[in-house]
Fold this protein.
Amino acid sequence: MYDKYECLTDPLKISDTTFVPGSMVVDSSSRSGQRYFSGYVFVGSYKSPDEIFETGLVLTPDPSVDTETRLGLLYGPSSGATRFHNASAGVSSSICSHVAGWFFSNFGTVGYVYLVNATCFRGYASPNNLHPSISHYYPNLAKDICDVNFSHPISSDYIVGVVWPYRFLNPERSKWRQGPPEGLKITINPHYNGNKTLKTAEEVIALFC
């Protein structure tokens, strides 16, 4: 799978997708201080591309958690880009690929980072008080936007592909806890280009170069 890949070469855009054309931040008209983000996001997951490319990013709402509590978790700052993924609150993501990779990358643990085209969605945008080991790379993420949380699953045809730092052979060997990646490799999800309402994978890649 990973022998066929393209490259995302702009280090600014892979660390902050608000710089990618098509991204948009909107202030809430009903909740003071709340903002929404539409654009491109990165999601960290322990699930492999074989599964994610088929099922998408799913969640299982907990019926014991009331709606107000669930939404409160989504608009509040989270503890990382995977905190609510595949859980009861929603799908959590980051505008920064390094942040998305950092939080699943516990010592010796294999994980994956996916690029999602969320230009058709609005996610709850919030800053994140990151661990000091990574926050010094991205001081802006604690003040502006870091996490983007979605209250709904994301189907496979919105997932552009799996990404990993350029210097590594494949996602399984990637070490996201090193310094920020200067570029990313991406293996395209074979189901992505079937969604004719979105930019093609080739067009998305061009936006990151």
Strands lie at 6-8, 24-27, 35-45, 91-94, 112-126, 147-150, 159-165, 184-188. The longest helix spans residues 67-75.
